[in-house]
Amino acid sequence: MDAKTNAGDRRVYRIVVRGQVDEEFVAAYCPAAAEMTWDGEATCLSNIHTDQAGIVGLVRHLHSLGYFILALES
Hints:
Blueprint: E1 11-18, H1 23-29, E2 35-38, E3 42-50, H2 52-64, E4 68-73
Antiparallel strand pairs: 1-3, 1-4, 2-3
């Protein structure tokens, strides 16, 4: 099995979590083009260009910080 990642393995993801995510978190842990919006109850992280391992790592990190994942879309 080939463990190398190629461009075809990358997708664009959108994550919605309950609560407000800190802008420093987005700058430190999300890809550069990621966008954050806050609607008063939930934060939407969109335009996340990564592979499956990257999105799993991001979701795990958000969960470990206590955020409740409301949606994950590809």
